[in-house]
Amino acid sequence: MKKLIIIILILVGSKTAFSQQDMFAGIWKYQNGNEVFLVTLWRISDGYKGHYKKITVDASGNQISVIYDSNKPIGSSTTNWPFVISTGNISQRNGIGGNVADNTVTNTPNAGGFVDGPLLILILNPGCYNPTGNTCPLQAQWIVKKRVGLSNPAEPPFNIPTNIILTKQ
């Protein structure tokens, strides 16, 4: 009987931990006027991968046009970027960290046509998260920085937002 109780506790704990991991998966949104920045994250075994895009919307929130989309061909190839966001698993601070490639910039000195840097996404209100339906709008801070150290002076700044609050959709 003791073994059965221990196994049940382990399974319940594992399910809770896995559910917490999924609080990041899905679509996140930041809106400034009629411009909307969308981040899509999906769960992989050891973290998250993702894409982003920026669109314009009308007064009703309907998409009018795409300003940029990271899910596009690599250079002049016919193969799309498989992802531009790559992070590890959730931390004890309810955050994920990793790397983001901004493939929307122009005139980059590297052959790939992108700039990249560290990315941190921190859940601001984890008490809102519920695996069966959030109890309030889940929000996260999106922070992107340039790499510390030597850099190419010809490298352009990020085109994507570098410090915003995203709301889970």
Describe this structure in words.
The chain has 1 helix and 9 strands. 12% of the residues lie in helices and 40% in strands. The radius of gyration is 19 Å and the shape is globular. The protein has an 8-stranded antiparallel beta barrel. It is mostly beta strands and 169 residues long. The protein has one domain (22-168).
SSE blueprint:
Blueprint (H helix, E strand, L loop, with lengths): L1 H20 L4 E7 L2 E10 L2 E11 L5 E7 L15 E3 L7 E8 L12 E9 L15 E6 L18 E6 L1
Descriptive terms for the model:
169 residues, mainly beta, eight-stranded antiparallel β-barrel, 1 helix, 12% helix, disordered N terminus
How many runs of DSSP E, i.e. beta strands?
Answer: 9
The overall pLDDT average reads 86
Distance N to C terminus: 43 Å
- Give the strand order, joined by hyphens, for the main sheet: 1-2-3-5-6-7-8-9
Low-confidence stretches: 1-19
How many whole angstroms does the radius of gyration measure?
19 Å
Into which percentage range does the β-strand content fall? 35-45%
Structural class assignment: mainly beta
How many separate helices? 1
Order of helices and strands: HEEEEEEEEE
Domains (count): 1
Quick gist of this model?
This protein has 169 residues and is mainly beta.
